[in-house]
Amino acid sequence: MSPAFALSLTVLMTVLLACILGGLLRVLRGPTRADRMLAAQLFGTTATAVLILMALATGDRSLIDVALAFAVLAAVTVVAFVATSGRGAP
Amino acid sequence: MDAMIVFDLALALALVGLAWAVLATEDLFAAVVLFIVFGLMTALAWVRLAAPDVALAEAAIGAGVTGALLLTTLRRTAGAATPEVTPPAVSWGVGALSLAVTAGLGAAFLGAPSQGPGLEGAIAGNLAASGVEHPVTAVLLNYRAYDTLMEVVVLFAAVVAVWSVAQAPEAETPAPGPVYAGFARLALPAAAVVGAYLLWAGATMPGGAFQGGAVLGALGILALLARSYVPAPEHRAMARAAFIAGTAVFALVALAVGFGPRVAFEYPPALAKPLILLIEAVVTLSIAATLAALFFGREPEPLSVEARP
Amino acid sequence: MSGLEALALALMVPGTVFFVAGTVGMLRFPDAVSRLHALTKADGLGLVLIAAGAAVAAGSAGVALRLVLICVLVGLAGALGAHLIARLVRSGGEG
Q1: How does pLDDT run across B89-148, given as a tens digit for each residue?
Q2: Interface test with B, best of C60, C73, C85 (most B CBs within 10 A)
Q3: Phi then psi for B118, rounded to 5 degrees?
Q4: Per-residue pLDDT tens for B3-25?
Q5: Residues B147 and B50 grouped into a single domain
């Protein structure tokens, strides 16, 4: 792996982490519960992307499995939120 | 990877900031969401610390199971009690205690010898006889199997405790609808395959019983949330069998190998791999059933006349 | 940098740009439903591009298969989540 490629991966990872931190703003600000929950969905997707980049950068293929676990769990939190909010059938 | 220091610093600051935000937010729902995010960031931190097994477990349990548990608890307790104001003496006392613990941990970490021999040599040297190729699984299921058995017992004790506490039936949650049905038909089988894959992969790479069990447990929680599966009183016997199976099989195997020249937990090297696989498979099912039952929160009982709303 | 790595970067950099666009949209759009729209579409596409770049750079069939599975699962979860949240907002179910 060339140093330029490794450096590019590091830059991309840091940019994605900055996206996550930006999403935190929405969780703290977001006036409604829906805003906070969609920010949480952003974290799941972005963290999966970060893990994929990390797997490339370190050469550790098992990180793809961690990303797979993140992807599988992405839906559970959102369904839990929706099922525990609201007052009856829409 | 010197350039990664920026990423690591940002992650560390985000973790501390998230921890502060969880405690400082006034809206309980925001605090729960922040806690789930904290779990995700911690999983990333574990990856940066070269511990993918822990990252897998943290993601499955911290983000999936704990998130669903906290959200359900929030709904059940909403408006139940007015929040109390903590007296300042308690706040300051707890703060001082936290600082003392942090200082102690920091001193222990910084003062520890940085280049000791550790146990890596011993672990690697005996790996061939342990039955698996992944050192973490060897430690969990062979070298320190006793600790893992106790962890499984802890989970079992938790579900016994939860099932012993009688509770009123919970309010009806809305059915998710046709979009969820389509999603479930595609994603749930895929998730089950991923859980089984994580269990199988534990022999040679990060994975194992806890990780696979946690993913399958999150799957069970999804099914419970969407009411794809409604626990019925007739299923109690099967549920009890699922809870105890992991502990029972683990303990039986551990004791059964311990006659003749061997002691308990000392698997014969020729049988080590199949024994470990057997233990892991049953423990995975147990963990999945236990986590889903802990989420559901009570023993499914037929509604008596008095309890019917 | 080899040609393969350059190709991988050519896929992953636009993917990251899409992620940034999704986050900016989420912060700047006026209400929850439009933020959902920005988030789900942009993040989903960004992840597919990053996964494609990673598949090119890793060059292994096992890795590529798992990456495809990741994209499918995240896409499904995103679609489901967006639908459920939007339905909840429309019915005025939470505050």
Answers
A1: 998 999 999 999 999 999 998 888 877 777 888 888 888 888 888 888 888 888 888 899
A2: C73
A3: 65, -165
A4: 889 999 999 999 999 999 998 88
A5: no
- CA distances (Å), B45 to each of A50, B16, B186, in order? 12, 12, 31
C88 part of contact set with chain B, CB < 8 Å: no
Q: Which residues numbered 8-27 in C keep a CB inside 8 Å of some CB on A?
A: 8-9, 12-13, 15-16, 19-20, 22-24, 26-27
For an interface test with A, the pick among C73, C80, C90 (most A C-beta atoms closer than 10 Å) comes out as C73
Which residues of chain B are within 8 Å of residue C87 when distances are taken between CB atoms? 177
For residues B130 and B64, state if they share a domain.
no
Task: Give the tokens for residue B157.
Answer: 């004790």
Minimum CA–CA partner of B61 in chain A: A73
| Inside any domain, residue B119 | no
pLDDT of C68-82, one tens digit each?
Answer: 999 999 998 898 888
Kindly indicate the confidence band of residue B269, based on its pLDDT and cuts at 50, 70 and 90. Answer: confident
Domain tally, chain B: 2
Chains B and C form CB pairs within 8 A to the count of 21
Q: Say if B90 falls within a structural domain.
A: no
Q: Which residues of A touch B36 (CB under 8 A)?
A: 40, 77
Non-local (6+) Cβ contacts of C60 within 8 A are A61
Q: For residue B256, what are the domain limits?
A: 126-303
Residue C10 has pLDDT above 70, yes or no: yes
